[in-house]
TrEMBL record:
Region spans: Disordered: 1-26
Pfam families per record: MFS_1
Lineage: Bacteria, Pseudomonadati, Pseudomonadota, Gammaproteobacteria, Alteromonadales
Residue ranges, compositional bias (Polar residues): 1-25
Protein name in UniProt: Major facilitator superfamily transporter
Source superkingdom: Bacteria
SUPFAM superfamilies linked: MFS general substrate transporter
RNA-binding among keywords: no
Length: 424
């Protein structure tokens, strides 16, 4: 059971008869069928949150040749959306207060869909980078506000549903990395990137169909509820650094594993399948470790196992070469795939109230993505200076040690005390 469970009475429901009405007066609590429907919609939405990033790596070689981009300049295709994700995370709940939850989520999905579709007509690197920025902003808004929706509706089952949600995010990356080279054969790399907009169309349709469902709790702040501030809260920063370090490792692997494999004489299709295998292992971990987390009060042993597993995988990628590459990638995928959802689960554990938990998650993701955006640039710079990717993997090994150290700090018995520190 989770250290904290949500208390729906501190939320309002946008689906209530009036927006000033407490959620305790909403038409009814979600039924099992309602929650199953919401879970399916969350999975479809989550599938849209990585294809725009994951489709880049397997198509990087033809893309670089066509647009005359170096490794460092190509790294901006990942860095800028990650930075945009960080900046936009801070505005997610401001948009909810202004537009309402339903419109905010609809807007974010529309941004992802249109920016991805625009890649069909990209003719220069700046346009492609601009599309990446818009995609990053849309992804950030979704990721900032969806955790509050999950906690409001699923209460003590939040770890399990967060596991499904984050696993679907990684599944979207796996599908995009594996199929983008094949889609590119229908035309060129433009099509390999742009076809993923179809997923966004599906997500918009299913969200529009469910967003007014009377028994699904749509979280929103009342005008009396103060915005939570975490700038002077050390625990919030620990969580943000943990999430940012995990994100940096994930994005570095997602961006550069395919080019590194092609340097080992993998074809584009083989490199794409290797990234697909990495993300498949992340999907397995994203299901396994949140399930384990739902059975225990203290998540620290899980976090430490994940950090060590990830570290062993990247040591293998740096030292063992092609012969043990699949094993190394499998270990790295298991470690990273479990760490990402667990970072969000541990963050959400720190507050009982879904809105406060969502605001903390938005802060952690905002700072974390800004920190994590450094990793692909650093890996690209090291590749250009040292002519191989092995040194970049050693940086990820060092980052895994930092994750291990931070994991020891998250004692659930101290959550209330740590979150009682007020922002000055």
């Amino acid at each position: 059971m989770a250290p904290f469970i949500s208390q729906p009475s501190c939320l309002m429901s946008e689906n209530s008869p009036t927006r000033t009405q407490s959620s305790s007066h909403r038409p009814g609590l979600p039924l099992a069928a309602d929650l199953l429907l919401l879970t399916a919609v969350l999975i479809i939405i989550a599938l849209n949150l990585r294809p725009a990033l994951a489709s880049i790596g397997p198509l990087l070689t033809p893309l670089q040749a066509d647009l005359q981009m170096s490794y460092t300049s190509a790294s901006w295709l990942t860095i800028l959306p990650i930075i945009a994700m960080g900046v936009a995370c801070f505005s997610g709940f401001a948009l909810v207060r202004w537009l309402g939850f339903q419109r905010t989520l609809s807007l974010a999905l529309l941004l992802i869909t249109l920016a991805t579709a625009a890649r069909w007509w990209v003719g220069q690197s700046t346009t492609l980078i601009l599309s990446a920025l818009v995609v990053g902003a849309g992804i950030a808004i979704v990721q900032a506000i969806v955790p509050a929706l999950i906690k409001a509706n699923f209460a003590e089952r939040t770890p399990t549903i967060m596991g499904f949600y984050v696993t679907a995010i990684m599944a979207g990356a796996a599908i995009a990395a594996s199929l983008s080279p094949t889609l590119a054969t229908l035309g060129d790399w433009h099509q390999g990137l742009a076809y993923w907009a179809l997923l966004g169309v599906v997500a918009l349709l299913v969200w529009f169909a469910i967003r007014r469902h009377p028994r699904i709790i749509i979280p929103t702040a009342t005008t009396q509820q103060a915005k939570q501030r975490y700038l002077n809260n050390p625990r919030a920063w620990q969580l943000a650094v943990f999430f940012g370090t995990a994100t940096g490792c994930y994005v570095c692997a997602l961006t550069w594993l395919a080019p590194a494999a092609m340097e080992l004489n993998y074809s584009e299709q083989q490199a794409g399948l290797l990234v697909g295998f990495l993300t498949f292992m992340e999907v397995v971990a994203g299901l396994l470790f949140p399930w384990w987390a739902s059975k225990v009060f203290d998540r620290r042993p899980i976090l430490m196992v994940l950090a060590i597993t990830q570290m062993l995988g990247f040591i293998g990628m740096a030292c063992l070469g092609e012969d043990f590459l699949l094993l190394s990638v499998a270990l790295a995928g298991l470690g990273m795939g479990g760490t990402f959802p667990m970072a969000l689960i541990v963050t959400m554990d720190h507050h009982r109230d879904p809105l406060k938990a969502g605001q903390l998650a938005a802060f952690v993701q905002g700072v974390g993505y800004l920190l994590g955006g450094i990793a692909p640039w650093l890996a690209a710079a090291m590749r250009e200076q040292l002519a191989q990717f092995q040194y970049s993997w050693w940086v990820v090994v060092a980052s895994s040690l930092l994750l291990l150290a931070l994991a020891t700090q998250f004692n659930p018995r101290h959550y209330a005390e740590k979150m009682s520190v007020k922002d000055a």
